[in-house]
């Protein structure tokens, strides 16, 4: 990875650690430091399941995309893991206390998160101080087009909660 980035040093401004869950990689702090040594800004996509590891790398980051899957009471049912909302909540708390730029985003499917619950989630995030939020359309298979986005009324209500909001 570092050789690849080094060869493109003059073409790139940043690198985003993503895919699966980058915080599960034990060498992530060293990889971040090595990429930073190349003069790159650093981003991270995370599901927020490892708050201690997140706290370790957060001071090294310029931007974070934090996946918020659903409302806290529905997390366990969606993930199949008891207590799965707590680490995500802890990571969001860390972000809110940091100076790192970030967005929260939810991959949305109406069967998983009906629009009233999506609005409740957004209002909860807004009340905690989240400024940037995005809805990502669920895709059933690689290469398929998004099949559903929230209604226009819901999108307008979501946009009113945040400094920036997008559906993608």
Automatic annotation (TrEMBL):
It holds the Pfam family Radical_SAM. The keyword Translocase does not apply. Its cofactor is [4Fe-4S] cluster. GO terms for molecular function: catalytic activity; iron-sulfur cluster binding; metal ion binding. The keyword Metal-binding applies. Keywords: Iron, Iron-sulfur, Membrane, Metal-binding, S-adenosyl-L-methionine, Transmembrane. Residues 12-97 form the Radical SAM core domain. This is Ribonucleotide reductase activating transmembrane protein. It comes from Ralstonia solanacearum.
């Amino acid at each position: 990875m570092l050789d690849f980035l080094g060869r493109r040093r003059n073409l790139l401004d940043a690198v985003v650690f993503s895919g699966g869950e980058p915080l599960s990689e034990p060498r992530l702090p060293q990889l971040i430091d090595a990429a930073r040594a190349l003069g790159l800004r650093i981003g991270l996509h995370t599901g927020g399941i490892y708050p201690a590891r997140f706290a370790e790398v957060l001071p090294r980051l310029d931007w974070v995309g934090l996946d918020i899957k659903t409302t806290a009471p529905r997390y366990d049912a969606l993930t199949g893991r008891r207590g799965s909302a707590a680490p995500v909540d802890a990571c969001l708390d860390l972000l809110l206390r940091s100076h790192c730029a970030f967005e929260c985003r939810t991959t949305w499917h109406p069967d998983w998160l009906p629009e009233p619950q999506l609005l409740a989630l957004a209002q909860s995030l807004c009340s905690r101080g989240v400024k940037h939020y995005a809805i990502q359309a669920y895709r059933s298979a690689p290469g398929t087009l998004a099949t559903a986005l929230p209604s226009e009324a819901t999108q307008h209500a979501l946009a009113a909660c945040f400094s920036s909001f997008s559906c993608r």
